[in-house]
From TrEMBL:
GO biological process, one term: proton transmembrane transport
Gene3D superfamilies xrefs: Calcium-transporting ATPase, transmembrane domain, HAD superfamily/HAD-like
Keyword Protein biosynthesis: no
Organism of origin: Lasius platythorax
Membrane topology (UniProt): Multi-pass membrane protein
Gene Ontology MF terms in the entry: ATP binding; ATP hydrolysis activity; P-type sodium:potassium-exchanging transporter activity
Subcellular location as annotated: Cell membrane
Protein name listed in UniProt: Cation-transporting P-type ATPase C-terminal domain-containing protein
Length: 292
């Protein structure tokens, strides 16, 4: 919204200066300024995003994912690292012999290589006997690498890591009340596979929100045209500020919400995790595409 606001103010001030240069009086120029800003500001975009995220949260609830924070849906879609507590999440704290293997007969040595470099090459690392402080340090280390980190936990000692993580995921059946309170997402069936469903929903709603915002911004172009004709051709102003607001809130918002119901693409789970620092919901490319 900040980028859209800056774009609207820039266009409004630019055309205000043009109207003053064309010898229009100050009152008409101010009306023109306000009209351009209002026409470029999609008033219904906040309501559209709130309704869309709420409907997505309802859909995730039917898939055993209870969302406590609507912003967590979008964050879950760009998760790069999942720090999972093994006991009661992946296992039931019951030891069973599944296979027997022989001890190693050799070692792999690596010269001129630092341990930090070795660790970064591994995509799956197991930390055993970790304390609450160490769990918190693991999350902070992932965040220092600019990785969106999700943490699953069910006990009180997982609460600091759940609170610090970009998205905390608690268990409903085996989880403690403290972990549920600090978590952003609760798995109602304690099934780790439900996280994958949540990530897919997060990626899908992000793609659909971009389509909805592009539609909303593209509909602003016809609203700007009457104000341009008002200045260039000196015709009566056909649309006022209140009329534009009614159009945005009364007609544009419903097709925009319907776009959020689009199904996800077939390769949505094969993509790399989105980088929030560079891939924003409203980008310059999206604005240029909508107005182009």
């Amino acid at each position: 919204m900040k980028m859209i606001s800056c774009w609207a103010v820039f266009l409004g001030v630019s055309f205000f200066c043009i109207s003053v240069a064309m010898s229009y009086n100050w009152i008409d120029s101010v009306v023109f300024l306000i009209g351009i800003i209002v026409a470029n500001m999609p008033e219904g975009i906040i309501a559209m995003m709130t309704v869309s995220l709420t409907l997505t949260a309802k859909r995730m609830d039917n898939k055993n994912c209870l969302v406590k924070n609507l912003e967590a849906i979008e964050t879950l879609g760009c998760t790069a690292v999942i720090c999972s507590d093994k006991t009661s999440t992946l296992t039931q704290n019951k030891m069973t012999v599944r296979s027997i293997f022989f001890p190693y007969i050799g070692k792999i040595s690596c010269k001129k290589c630092h341990n930090d470099q070795l660790i970064r090459r591994y995509q799956k690392i197991v930390f055993a006997r970790t304390s609450p402080v160490q769990k918190l340090q693991i999350v902070e280390s992932c965040q220092r690498l600019h990785l969106i980190t999700a943490v699953t936990g069910d006990d009180v000692n997982d609460s600091p890591a759940l609170k610090k993580a970009d998205i905390g995921i608690a268990m409903d059946v085996a989880g403690s009340d403290v972990s549920k309170q600090v978590a952003d997402l609760i798995l109602l069936d304690d099934n780790f596979a439900s996280i994958v469903t949540g990530i897919e929903e997060g990626r899908r709603i992000f793609d659909n929100l971009k389509s909805s915002i592009a539609y909303t911004l593209a509909s602003n172009v016809p609203e700007i045209t009457p104000f341009l004709a008002f200045v260039v051709f000196e015709i009566p102003l056909p649309l006022g500020v209140i009329c534009i607001s009614c159009i945005d809130l009364g007609t544009d918002i419903w097709p925009a919400i319907s776009l959020t119901y689009e199904k996800s693409e077939s390769d949505i789970m094969l993509r790399k995790s989105r980088i929030p620092q560079s891939d924003h919901l409203v980008s310059r490319c999206l604005i240029f595409m909508a107005y182009g």
